[in-house]
Amino acid sequence: MTATLSAPQSIESWLGDEAEDLLTHQAKVSKDLLHLPGSDFIDRTFAYSDRSPQVLRSLQQLYSFGRLANTGYLSILPVDQGIEHSAGASFAPNPIYFDSENILKLAIEAGCSAVATTLGVLGSVSRKYAHKIPLITKLNHNELLTYPNQFDQFMFASVEQAWNLGSVAVGATIYFGSPESSRQIQEVSRAFARAHELGMATILWCYLRNPAFKQDKDYHLAADLTGQANHLGVTIEADIIKQKLPEVNNGYGAVAQATGKSYGKTDKRVYSDLTTDHPIDLTRYQLLNCYSGRIGLINSGGASGKADFAEAIRTAVINKRAGGSGLISGRKTFQRPFEEGVKLFHQIQDVYLSPDVTIA
């Protein structure tokens, strides 16, 4: 879970044997079909939308802060794991993060675009930090204290509370595919509409959850299913989509075959014309479902482990080359010594700053 801080490695060295494939792959779907990140991203993609001038200002704040300022890319620290995974499980690896202020200190020192965390964390220090880094209030959570454990997203905060503490954006999670998803879609849609009324941007944690999605492979990470989740997310006017990096495809077919029942609708051209099994093509399909990039796609860094630096840089390269808008990195960065967390963020950000990592 720790890495020795030494002389910086090149992006190629972090990618190892995959370097040539990931850095030179030509995508199945042309980048010419996409709205790509850039310094004028808000002007090109949102200026003629129904977002108010106040929302445009909030979006521009997100894209204008930190080491990636005015590049069209985002680097966000998310810390809601104290609720989602329990405080003990999340912060025991580095107890300084039981103190809410250290979460914001990490984001600032690391040159992040914003910090996304709970009402309680932000409310405890908002007067000190609301003018120092863009704040994103995560509105809903799943908690693991209820017995037996359940998996559902409930509102912990109101949009008005987020606005009062100075947030420029709100975030929420929907478990698409779950029995509770219909209620969650309605709750989050109303919350996002209210956030837009108050001038805040909206970010959706666009996740899948259903036991039927775990078959011979984990189809919670299927490009076709996560792509459709993204499409539902942009339909309720999420301004940014957060999604896990895809690892497989044809989740529709796998679920139908495993259950012996018809499931959803797709088209064979999704698999023949729009995707391959390459991670950049799978991620590009996720982006296609974000109105071809009009809504930015940020991928998540995943759980912390022994190869955090290599895994995070690999994810950043895939996201950038697919046309995505950045990375949101939590446990990999805060479940380690503070200086190492800063270093990991800088390594991720360097991928987006590098002219050698191009759009596929």
From TrEMBL:
CDD domains: DhnA (cd00958). This is fructose-bisphosphate aldolase. Belongs to the DeoC/FbaB aldolase family. FbaB subfamily. GO terms for molecular function: fructose-bisphosphate aldolase activity. It comes from Phormidesmis priestleyi ULC007. Keywords: Lyase, Schiff base. Its EC number is 4.1.2.13.
